[in-house]
Write a structure and sequence with these properties.
The complex is a heterodimer of chains A (289) and B (365). Chain A is mainly α and 289 residues long. Helices cover 79% and strands 3% of the residues of chain A. Chain A has a two-stranded antiparallel sheet with strand order 1-2. The longest helix of chain A has 36 residues. Chain B folds into 2 domains: 231 residues, P-loop containing nucleotide triphosphate hydrolases (Rossmann fold, 3-Layer(aba) Sandwich); 122 residues, Beta Barrel (OB fold (Dihydrolipoamide Acetyltransferase, E2P)), CATH 2.40.50.140. In chain B, strand 16 and strand 17 form a beta hairpin. The interface between A and B is medium-sized, with 18 and 24 residues. The complex binds adenosine-5'-triphosphate (ATP) and magnesium ion. The site of adenosine-5'-triphosphate has 11 residues of chain B, from helix 1.
Chain lengths: 289, 365
C-alpha cells in the first residue's frame, strides 16, 4: 500500500513539469485567446460576448483570402519539401555509409545553427537587387542590369523550404533507419523494378515518417512569420502578418485573438483533410514513428 | 536423379573480393535440376556473399554464374529467375499474407483473377489455406517461414536460395521445419540451395552438401561421403562429431599417436603419407567401442587404453567419456555391440576402432 502510494507520488512528480508546461504555456494562453475572441467591443471599456469578431473576419474578403493564400502556399511548401527531403532522407538512411551518415545529418542541422533573423538576412544578401546572385549574373553577362529576386512568392517558398526541410528529413530518416535492407532486396529479388520497390515497399514503410514530417512542416510554415515578411516584403500577404497587425499596430486584441483561433482551426482542418485524403491516420503515425 | 537433366545452377571459378580481402575464392560447382544442395560452413566463410552473387546483389570479381545454362553476369537481380528466402525472411510488414505472395505476380503483371487463384493454390500447397487476410505479425515463426517460401515458389523460380532461414527459430521448431523443408522441396520439385552453419541441418536435408571454409569449397559430396570419407581435415572436424589426435607417420605406415599408442589407418585413395609426416587423426564416436581389456578378442583393431570417466546420457545421442593416458577426454558412442553401458565409472577400458574408421590427414604446415 505504502509502496503504491510512493509510486504514485513518483509518477506525479515526474509528470508535474510536463503538466505545468502544458497548462501554463499551451492551455491557458489558448483559453485566454478563445475568451478574447468572443468578446466584442461595443464602446470604450464596454464589452459583451458574441460572435461579432468572427463575422467581421468572414465579411472582409482580404482576411480570408490571406488565410487561404497562406494555407495554399504552406501546402505547396510542404509538398516541395517532401520531394526534396525524401531523397535526402533515403540517401542518409540507406545509401550513405555508417560514417558519413552523422556528418550528413549535421549538415542538415546547419540552418538551425543561426537564428531565423540572420538566416533571412542571409537570403536577402543573396537575392536582393545588389546581391550576390544578381551580381554574378551581371558578371557572367547573362543579364544586362541588376535583377531583383526578393519580394516574390518564389523567394518566400525557397526561404521557407530551407528553414523547414530538416523537420521533414529527420522523421523520415528515423523510420527508414529501422527498415531492414533485406526488405528492399527482397523487393528486387521478387521481380520489382526500382519504381515498384520505391512505391510498394519503401514509401509505405516510410509513411509514418512522411506523415509526421508533413504535419510538422505544414504547421511550422503556416505559423511562420519572419521568413515570409522579410523575403516577401509588403505584398507577402501571410496570415501571421495580419495577426501581428491586429495585436500590435491596431491594438485590436479581440480581432487578433479571433484570427489566432481561426488560423489554428483552419490549419488543423487542413491537416485532418490531408490525412483523410491520403487514407492515413494519426494513431498509426504516432505508434510507428 | 539422372545426369541427363542439365544443371539448374552452375558456378565457374567464382571469386569475390572486398578490398584486399577475398570473401569467395575460386568456387566452382553445379547443381542438377530438382536437387537439394546445401552450402555448409562456419560463420564468416563467405556463404552469404556467394548467395548474394547468385541472386545478383553482388558483382563477382571473376568467374561465371549460369542459370539453366545461360550466364547471368550483368543481369540485374529483378531479371534473374532465382528467388531468395532471406535470413530474417524479409516479409513485407505493411502488406498482409496475400499481398506479400501476390507482390511478385503483380510485378509480372498477372491479372487479378489469376493472382487470387495462384495465391490460394500456393497457400494450399504449403498447408496454410485461408490465411490470406492475416497480417504478418499475426503469424507464428513456422508459418512466417512457410509464407516466405510460398512468396518465392508462387513465381516458379529455377532455383530457390535459402540463407539460414531456420536461424531465428527455437530448437523444437527447427527440428520440425527441417523435415518440412525437405518435404516442400519434394513437393515443388525445385532446386533448393540451402545455406547453413549447422551441420545437422545440412546432413538431414540435402542430396549434396558443399563444405565451405575461408571462401573456398573444401569438398562437395553426399552427406554420407562427407561423413564417412571426408577429403580434408577441416571437413572431418566440421561435419559430425569426432575425436581428434595428433601423431606422426612411422616407417612402415603405422602412426604413432601423442598418447603413445600405435595405430594404422586404411589408406585413402590418392594419398600416400610419407614417413615422418605429422598428421591429424579423427575418429567418430560411433566408430569406437569401449570394452573391458579382458573381453578383447584378436588384434585387428586399433586400440587406445583409458579409464571410463562418466556416462553422458542424452537419449539416442548418449555418450561415454573416456580419459586417455595423456588426460584427454574422448567421447564414445553408446549403444554399440559389446555396449559400454554396463561399465562403471573408474574402470579401465580399451577403446577399439577399425583402421577403416580411422581418418588420417597430413597436418598443414
Ligand atoms: N560488404 C562487405 N564489405 C567488406 N567485407 C564484407 C562485406 N560483406 C561481407 N564481408 C566479409 O566477407 C566475409 C564473408 O561474409 P559472409 O556474410 O558471406 O559470411 P557468412 O558465411 O554468410 O557468415 P554467417 O554464417 O555469419 O552469415 C566476412 O569476413 C565479412 O566480414
Ligand atoms: Mg550469412
Amino acid at each position: 500500500m505504502v509502496q503504491k502510494d510512493a509510486q504514485r507520488l513518483a509518477l506525479f512528480l515526474l509528470l508535474m513539469p510536463f503538466a505545468l508546461w502544458i497548462l501554463l504555456l499551451i492551455v491557458l494562453p489558448h483559453l485566454g485567446i478563445g475568451y478574447l475572441s468572443i468578446r466584442e467591443k461595443i464602446g470604450p471599456r464596454q464589452y459583451e460576448f458574441g460572435p461579432g469578431n468572427y463575422i467581421d473576419f468572414i465579411s472582409e474578403p482580404i482576411y480570408w483570402n490571406t488565410l487561404l493564400r497562406t494555407a495554399t502556399m504552406s501546402v505547396l511548401v510542404t509538398v516541395l519539401t517532401l520531394f526534396i527531403g525524401f531523397p535526402v532522407a533515403y540517401y542518409i538512411a540507406k545509401v550513405a555509409g555508417r560514417r558519413s551518415r552523422a556528418g550528413l545529418f549535421l549538415l542538415c542541422l546547419i540552418p538551425l545553427w543561426v537564428s531565423d533573423l540572420v538566416r533571412a538576412f542571409g537570403w536577402i544578401v543573396l537575392l536582393r537587387e545588389t546581391g550576390v546572385v544578381s551580381g554574378f549574373l551581371q558578371w557572367t553577362g547573362l543579364v544586362s542590369g541588376p535583377v531583383e529576386f526578393l519580394y516574390n512568392d518564389a523567394a518566400v517558398v525557397i526561404g521557407l523550404i530551407y528553414t523547414v526541410v530538416l523537420f521533414m528529413i529527420v522523421p523520415i530518416v528515423s523510420t527508414l533507419d529501422g527498415m531492414d535492407d533485406a526488405l528492399i532486396e527482397a523487393g528486387y529479388n521478387l521481380g520489382g523494378s526500382r519504381w515498384t520497390v520505391l512505391r510498394r515497399i519503401v514509401i509505405p514503410y516510410a509513411m509514418p515518417g512522411i506523415v509526421a514530417g508533413c504535419i510538422v512542416v505544414f504547421m511550422l510554415t503556416a505559423g511562420s512569420y519572419l521568413t515570409p515578411i522579410l523575403l516577401g516584403g509588403k505584398n507577402s500577404m501571410w496570415f501571421t502578418e495580419q495577426i501581428y497587425d491586429q495585436f500590435i499596430t491596431r491594438y485590436n486584441w479581440e480581432s487578433g485573438a479571433t484570427f489566432g483561433v481561426v488560423l489554428l482551426a483552419f490549419t488543423s482542418f487542413v491537416v485532418w483533410l490531408g490525412l483523410k485524403l491520403t487514407g492515413q491516420n494519426l494513431a498509426n503515425t504516432v505508434a510507428k514513428g | 536423379m539422372t545426369d541427363s537433366r542439365s544443371p539448374d545452377l552452375e558456378c565457374l571459378s567464382l571469386t569475390k573480393r572486398f578490398g584486399a580481402f577475398t570473401a569467395v575464392d575460386d568456387v566452382s560447382f553445379e547443381i542438377p535440376s530438382g536437387s537439394f544442395f546445401s552450402i555448409l560452413g562456419p560463420s564468416g566463410c563467405g556463404k552469404t556473399t556467394l548467395m548474394r552473387m547468385i541472386a545478383g546483389f553482388e558483382e563477382p570479381a571473376s568467374g561465371d554464374i549460369r542459370i539453366k545454362g545461360k550466364s547471368v553476369i550483368g543481369t540485374p537481380p529483378n531479371r534473374r529467375n532465382v528467388k531468395m528466402v532471406f535470413q530474417h525472411l524479409a516479409l513485407f510488414p505493411m502488406m498482409n499474407v496475400a499481398e506479400n505472395i501476390a507482390y511478385g505476380l503483380r510485378c509480372r503483371g498477372a491479372d487479378k483473377a489469376e493472382i487470387t487463384r495462384r495465391v490460394g493454390d500456393v497457400l494450399e500447397r504449403i498447408g496454410l489455406p485461408g490465411v490470406e487476410t492475416k497480417q504478418i505479425h499475426q503469424l507464428s515463426g513456422g508459418q512466417k517461414q512457410r509464407i516466405a517460401i510460398a512468396r518465392c515458389m508462387v513465381l516458379e523460380p529455377d532455383v530457390l536460395l535459402l540463407d539460414e532461414p531456420l536461424g531465428a527459430l527455437d530448437l523444437k521448431l527447427r527440428e520440425r521445419m527441417k523435415i518440412e523443408l525437405k518435404l516442400l522441396q519434394h513437393q515443388f520439385d525445385t532446386t533448393f540451395v540451402y545455406i547453413t552453419h549447422d551441420q545437422s541441418e545440412a546432413l538431414v536435408m540435402s542430396d549434396r552438401v558443399a563444405v565451405m571454409n575461408a571462401g573456398r569449397f573444401e569438398q562437395i559430396g553426399t552427406p554420407q561421403e562427407l561423413y564417412h570419407a571426408p577429403a580434408t581435415a577441416f571437413v572431418a572436424g566440421f561435419v559430425g562429431d569426432s575425436s581428434r589426435f595428433s601423431g606422426r607417420v612411422e616407417a612402415g605406415g603405422t602412426i604413432l599417436l601423442e598418447t603413445g599408442e600405435r595405430i594404422t589407418a586404411a589408406p585413402r585413395t590418392g594419398t600416400v603419407l610419407p614417413a615422418g609426416t605429422t598428421v591429424d587423426v579423427f575418429v567418430r564416436p560411433d566408430a569406437v567401442a569401449a570394452r573391458r581389456p579382458a573381453e578383447l578378442s584378436g588384434d585387428a583393431f586399433n586400440r587406445i587404453d583409458g579409464v571410463l570417466d562418466s556416462h553422458l546420457f542424452n537419449g539416442a545421442q548418449s555418450r561415454a567419456l573416456v580419459r586417455t593416458g595423456d588426460g584427454r577426454m574422448i567421447e564414445v558412442g553408446y549403444p554399440r555391440p559389446g555396449s559400454s553401458e554396463n561399465l562403471a565409472p573408474g574402470e579401465a577400458v580399451a577403446l577399439t576402432f577399425t583402421p577403416a574408421d580411422t581418418l588420417c590427414f597430413a597436418k598443414k604446415a
